[in-house]
Amino acid sequence: MKRILLGGAVASLSLVAAAAPLARQSAPPPAQAGQSPFRSSTALVEVDAIVLHKDGRFASGLRADDLEIFEDGKRQAIAQFYMVTHEPGGTVTSEHADATDYRAKRVFVLMFDEGHLATDSLMRVKEGAVAFIRDRMGPNDVAGVFVNGAMYKGRLTSDKTELIGGVHTVKPAFENRQALLATFQQFPRIPGERDATRIAEGARELVDDLGIKACREDRTECELNGGLQQVENLIQQKARLYIRQARLLADRTAQNLQTVARGLSRLPGRKTVVFLSEGFYLEDSRGVIEAIAAQAARGGTTIYSIDGRGLVGAPSPTADVRTNNRGRSTAFDTGDDGPNILTAGTGGFMLRNMDDMSRAFGMIVRDTSTYYVIGYQPANPTMDGKYRKIEVRSKVDGLSVRARKGYAAVALPPPESLLGGR
Description:
This protein is an alpha+beta fold and 422 residues long. The protein has helices at 97-103, 119-136, 160-168, 177-182, 193-200, 204-217, 219-224, 228-264, 286-298, 337-346, 357-367, and strands at 2-4, 45-52, 67-71, 74-76, 78-86, 92-94, 107-112, 142-147, 150-151, 271-277, 301-307, 350-351, 370-376, 387-394, 400-402, 406-408.
């Protein structure tokens, strides 16, 4: 493989209308006969694939014939295949020199979901974010801090001082989801989010059952609150208030995710969003979140999620941080579904049950350091806006493949370059 060391000035990307546009990237030259073609992501559907041995090591040295890709169950012809490696010293290695032109810089967006981070969680992820910027960003990496609904200073940058300053601006939300959920534990108790949803939708029998149970378990509180009928009214009011507030928080998160996904789709190559959140209410917005994941996947953005709550109730510090089996109590909270849709749909993963946020960020950095790029021209070339399922399989025994699950068949905007001259 040919090794190419790329440099460049500080790169910036505006996700707000007022910022200056970047220079357009010129299209790569057509492939010569006998060569593996290389084209921009607007010409092909590109899929980044992480291929691992059973022991977790990356499976290097694969060829296009070792993998196969399917769209909506139909096998697709692989037109482009190569591996990209970001080495610790900033060197970018690829079989294709053209590929390194727009994959030389890893792009990270640290997205703080303030409305879904309790104060202790926010402090924990902020500390991890600062350590990531200070210790793990390479000389060719650029990043942005998405806070309070916008990119800090409206750009991506390699200036670590600016990025750390952006992290320091993140403040706890006046009202966050965990504070809202805490009311479920107060008299009269509501078992959890799903019950609150059913109550808000008019489940009268559930209200009656919870009211009777509350008055039976605490007669004094029942009497102080006006008796059974008033307790049932209080249960309904509490559930409706929570659902209304949870929807507002979830809508804001969805809007922010969509803003980031659309902005990053203008950059060719792989982009990484680190979504820092405790999860969010999904009952009314599942379709919206699925659409955002599909849009992000089409634009080459991979989403990783870090749960800011850290190690809570886990049986041991070696618990599997990438599975749903964990010791943390979720009696009131069902918020993991949203981050799971985002990460699984774009080829990333969720990290939870970890107090060491530096380790969590480190796992994401390693995952973005080496990957295969598979490009194919869909058998159905019509960009009709519909969701198309993707599956990447290994023909080599003992290997597992993680890649995005699908994409929204929409045309991408013209690409903008992150690379500048010295």
